[in-house]
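Lab notes, practical 5.
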Amino acid sequence: MSGRVERFLGGSPIRVGINLVLMSIAVGLLLSWFDLSPRRLIDGTIDAVMRIIDTVFGSIDNVIQYFLLGAAIVVPIFLISRVLKVGRRDDRY
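Output from the prediction step:
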């Protein structure tokens, strides 16, 4: 049983616990130095995800508007050119 626990943890439980405590203190000091808190990190992450979602779906909305604007010009020109081409009877094909 002890071998399974050590294999899962990557070492003896006491040594892993000491390493986790020391790394937690170091990360806590670093976050304190940057004036960050877990709550601010979570809120910032959520805000970033929401901004990304807004940007992606806002971009899709813009693409649809650009498509419709361009189609209002391109489709009539295409139809006119097809009608004029049918009247010419070009036998190259």
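Observations recorded by the TA: Residues 31 and 37 are 7 Å apart (CA to CA). The mean pLDDT is 87.
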